[in-house]
Amino acid sequence: MKDIAYLTGGSWRGEALPQGALPSLEMRDYERLLPAAEAAGLRLRILRWGDARVLDCAGALIRSCWDYIEQHEAFCAALERIEAAGVPLFNRAALVRWNSQKTYLRDLQSAGVPCILTLWADRPDPAFVARAFDTLDCAELVLKPQIGAGSRRTIRLQRNAWSAADLIGAPEGPVMAQPFLPLIETLGEMSLLYFGGRFSHAVRKIPPPGGWLANDRAANISACVPDAGQLRLAEQVLAAVPHDLLYARVDVVRDAHDAPALIELEAIEPALYLPYAEGGAYALCAALAAALAG
Fold first, then answer.
1. If exposure means fewest CB atoms within 10 Å of the residue's CB, which of 224, 245, 258, 266 is most exposed?
2. Is the pLDDT of residue 258 over 90?
3. What is the pTM of this model?
């Protein structure tokens, strides 16, 4: 039996996590992974990403390290130390560093992947917001931090109905601006999960009534079957990633022309939605065992 570090953080949504504990959101996936890991000859050990005991494990699986956005450089450096010590890390440290800053979307767009149109800036001042409305030619705008998770410090603005005071809740540093897509309120977004390079399952996430964030904790989540266009887009995304992937979640929405477009690639700590995937936990653990062996 090989010990695998199941990496988590020291806090979740601003609240401290005890040693050996996981965020409640992660428990649904973890409980399904435990028997699947055992069947693959693996034993999962919940450890924080900075814990020295990770170096005693046969491998490390990044899962719920959601505090990395406040400690970005320390987190990336810790992952690099794990790999330098010879512990296989999934996903790789170089991929994490690339995927942790949302400017990776520029790389994917340059590779021909259809992405949501995005503007970038060092900070969200009123001049940038005004320029974003004009350049993106949209009625509503979403501002997000370039390094972020869980929609923290993400705001939505309406053209001709915003002021500098509305930027109080905006990102404090590097920012990205995207047009708000009204279809998200009704169709939500689709998440396609891939393990070991193979499609596993998909879910649709629809914001709760009156909401607009598909990752809202009250969102309506259901298993779904992607169409050929959505699958083609997801595979195009993965083919354009400059690193190997053990697992990935490709978040797809419908753009203003009702065509599938990438809104996010999650290759660090995505929710896997295993309760909606028959055999998904076993597929991931089999892919992990194969990667460790090969």
1. 258
2. no
3. 0.94
